[in-house]
Amino acid sequence: MIFPAIVKSTIREAFSRKILLSLFILFSFVILLIAALINLDAVQGIPKLLEAQPDFDYRSFIIKMELLMISQPSFLIVMILFIIMSSSFIPSLLQKGTVELTLSKPVSRTEIILGKFSGGVIIVFIALTYLISLIWAVISLKTGVWHFAFLYSILWYTLIFAVLYSLVILTGIITKSTIMSLIINVLLFFPFTAILSAKDNISLFASNKVLAFILNFIYHILPKPWDMRGLCSDAIDGSLNMSGGFFYVYQPVITSLIFMLVCLSLSVYYFSKKDY
After folding, report:
1. More confident call, 207 vs 184
2. What angle do CA 153, 197, 132 make, to 5 degrees?
3. Which domain holds residue 27?
4. CA angle, 197 then 240 then 149, to 5°
5. Side-chain half-sphere of 56: how many Cα atoms within 13 Å?
6. How far apart are CA 155 and CA 236, in angstroms?
7. pLDDT one-digit tens code per residue, 13-40
8. Which residues are CB-neighbours of 31 under 8 A, at least 6 positions away?
9. Quick one: which of 30, 89, 159, 248 could link to 244 by a disulfide (CB 3.0–4.6 Å)?
């Protein structure tokens, strides 16, 4: 069972480098900070002030609080942390001595790449489950509002990371450099895809049709993490509008998954053809 061994080795690498431990310490601090803020008298008094308004909905107010926890700034920070964490997995595998030892084992190169991919995704899933489930528990216990849909963000954010991680793997194989892989993927995530997610607004102010076409073309071939985050928020607060049809609404997810499969396929192909 070589494939599970590669997955476990990736997880062990994250532990040995104190990467996962650092994430859990940071996330624990964030959870404690949120718990402390919720207990502040000034924060507790906000709902009481708003209750004076006739159309005040306490449950909706709490859901908005939860959505604030996964807003764009926090999404940016968390995903960059995950990119930093995972950017060394492939370059460390390709170090002289390590790659020869790995390839000497009875395992296909496809299994190696998919094992590294699965290991990284599992690590992030565990970290997100710890962070988001405890934030949800703290808010729910304090307010009495148990909005289970907030937990969907664990799966959404894991999926978004998986898409981004596929390119981390590809750039890691091609460059063999943690720094180069990190720079390329962070810049692609922010600001590049963040700007492309606002292409419709940009097109309104851009009179150049060629520019609008180029933005649309690049938008559709690259991953769409920011649009997927928006879908996540809409799914959590129940505002997801399916009037355009499944493929129209979930187009960011579908095209991002295609991007992920292409990146993984190219990674397997390049790694298989390379002589180490």
Report:
1. 184
2. 15
3. 2-273
4. 110
5. 11
6. 12
7. 887 777 778 889 999 999 999 988 887 7
8. 131, 134, 135, 138
9. 248
CA–CA distance, 209 with 95 (Å, rounded to integer): 47
* 131/154 Cα distance (integer angstroms): 9
Encoded tokens for 72: 């764009």
DSSP code of 55?
Answer: T
Amino acid at 111: E
DSSP 83-111: HHHHTTHHHHHTSTTHHHHHHTSS--HHH
Give per-residue pLDDT as tens, 123-154. Answer: 999 999 999 999 999 999 988 899 999 999 99
Domain count for the chain, please give it: 1
**Would you say 244 and 235 are in contact if contact means Cβ atoms under 8 Å apart?**
no
Q: Is the C-alpha dihedral spanning 63, 68, 71, 76 positive or negative?
A: negative
Burial group, residue 229, by CB count within 10 angstroms (0-12, 13-18, 19+): buried
Q: Which of 247, 182, 256, 191 is nearest to 225 (CA)?
A: 256
Both structure tokens of 121? 């995704």
The amino acid occupying position 151 is: L
Cβ(195)–Cβ(226) below 8 Å = no
Q: At what angle do helices 251-273 and 152-175 cross, to 10 degrees?
A: 30
Task: Please tell me what DSSP assigns to residue 198.
Answer: T
Residues in contact with 175: Cβ distance below 8 Å, sequence separation at least 6, in sequence order: 91, 181, 184
How many Å apart are CA 194 and CA 69, to the nearest integer?
19
pLDDT higher than 70, residue 206: no
**135 HSE (CA, 13 A, CB side):** 26
